[in-house]
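Hello,

I think I submitted the calcium ion job twice by accident. Can you confirm which output corresponds to this input? Input:
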Amino acid sequence: MRRLLSVLLALGLVLSFSLVTAVPALGADFYVPSPSYPTISSALTVAGLGDTIYVAAGDYYEDIVLVNGASVLGAGADVTTIIGSGTGSVVTADGVNSGTVFDGFTITGGWATYGGGMYLSGSSLTVSNCIFYNNRATNNGGGMRLITSSSPVVTNCIFDTNTAGFFGGGIACRTNSSPDITNCTIVNNTATGNGGGGIYVHTSSPNITNNIIAGNTAPSGGGIYVFSYTPYIDYNDVWNNTGGDYSGCSAGANDISSDPKFIVGDPEYHLDPDSPDFLDPSPCIDAGYNSAPSLPGTDYEGDPRVFDGDGNGTATADMGADEYYIPPPPTPPGGTVGGEVYPVDKTTLLLPWLGLGLVLVLAAGGLILVRRAGRLR
Ligand SMILES: [Ca+2]
Ligand SMILES: [Ca+2]
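Support: Only one job matched these inputs. Its output is below.
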């Protein structure tokens, strides 16, 4: 009887183990492209809560629909591009909650009535380190449109050369959508029909902090256009927007309006430090707010944020997607350099002496043998 019980118990254990292993693990990783998942969309059809889709560098010709809880991570906006079909939004998020991350892509080629690059409805995910370039909306939200209580974190993103027929060339926030728009570079976007070349706000209260909003165009409020509500606006550089920098709102107490001095011809809008003399650096270096809502811990290329870019001894966040960063000099090999003591690699120092010691021991041993041999003769 006892033996029978043991067998049954063992069988039960095997069965329960089989059942456990048959269920896909929560938090699975998917890789695109791969034989099973050649496109991002093919991975999104099976991914769910807690999963992560890793997308390798390359160009992907598709429109994608995000799913709640499945993060989609590109290899970086400079090498991973989603090129939309031109018949709708490139990226759609409907009911995608916080905890979901969309990061590291260039989004281009979108053409939709609303939200050419990205369309968010009731979605509050994190959108970070992305470039929205050359997307179009015939109505509003050329780069991105948010509606129905969408309050995502939008950080370290570049909105460049997106257009809308009416409102919000770069971003349109509507119907209780209150995102944190922090450390973004919003440039050269256009709203042709009405307001908000850079950002359009309607019945929403976004936090707009540490951004560069420059060179955008609209008939009214070329930089930021607010139809109603009072968004939090501070520590931005809002400059040279055709149709006015602000409409329906005022500049934040710490906003500036100066040429951000990007490195000329750089599509990723790095801030020019005017090195090596630093006489006329970008005014956005160390001009941001360290307590900005959802301040990212790095910039869009992975440089640490916050960094003391002006060398005054106080580390302060920059405005825009780039943080000006000087990597530390490589650590020299052990020893004393220029009066500063660096950590000494004891092994490197001891090795030559060990070698010399071995030679001496062998020489002494040889000498003894020769002497002994001499005595024996
Ligand atoms: Ca800084
Ligand atoms: Ca940087």
